[in-house]
Design goal:
Blueprint: E1 2-7, E2 10-15, H1 22-29, E3 48-51, E4 54-57, E5 70-72, H2 81-92, H3 102-115, H4 121-128, H5 138-153
Parallel strand pairs: 1-5
Antiparallel strand pairs: 1-2, 3-4, 3-5
C-alpha cells in the first residue's frame, strides 16, 4: 500500500504493507540507517525517533499509524536548538563508546530536554531508563544531558 510520510521535513511516498514497523521503512525503504534495530520489542530504545516531537520506538510504531505525522530521525535532530545542543554536548564530553545505541540515546535526550530544560539527575535517570547501552556509558550520557542543558541555558 502506498503511503505518504513527512520525514525530516521532506515528503516521501513509500510502499509498505500494513503492520510494517516504521523502523524498517526508515532503514530499508528510505535508506536512513542512523535509526538502529536493537530488540524489536520497544525495550532498548535504539530505534527511537520523534513522532510529532515525541520520542517513540519505531520498531513498534506501524506505518499506517504515522501517515499524517511529522517524523524526525537522528539524521535531522540537530536541525533544531535542542538537538544541536545535545549533539554538541555528546562531542564535547566524548559520550559515545561503541555508538550503537547513541542515536536512540540522543533522540530520547532531546525529548527529555524538550519537556524539562533543567532536569535533575533523578529525572534524567528516570526518563532515560528505557534506553539500554551495552557499553554502560550511562554516567557519560547523564553528563551529556546535563551539559546540553547548560548549553541551552547560556
Amino acid at each position: 500500500m502506498a503511503l505518504t510520510l513527512k520525514l525530516n521535513g521532506a515528503t516521501h511516498t513509500v510502499d509498505a504493507e500494513p503492520g510494517t514497523p516504521l523502523l524498517w521503512v526508515i532503514r530499508d525503504e528510505l535508506k536512513l540507517t542512523g535509526t538502529k534495530f536493537g530488540c524489536g520489542v520497544a525495550s532498548c530504545g535504539a530505534c527511537t525517533v520523534h513522532l510529532n516531537g515525541e520520542p517513540v520506538r519505531s520498531c513498534q510504531t506501524y506505518i499506517e499509524d504515522v501517515e499524517d505525522a511529522e517524523i524526525t530521525t537522528i539524521e535531522a535532530v540537530g536541525d533544531d536548538k535542542i538537538g544541536a545542543a545535545v549533539q554538541q554536548a555528546w562531542v564535547e564530553l566524548d559520550v559515545v563508546q561503541c555508538g550503537y545505541c547513541q542515536s536512540g540515546q540522543v533522540m530520547s535526550a532531546v525529548g527529555l530536554l524538550s519537556e524539562n530544560a533543567k532536569p535533575s539527575v533523578e529525572e534524567i535517570d528516570t526518563y532515560m531508563a528505557g534506553n539500554a547501552c551495552r557499553c554502560a556509558t550511562y554516567q557519560r550520557i547523564r553528563a551529556g544531558i546535563q551539559r546540553a542543558s547548560d548549553i541551552l541555558e547560556a
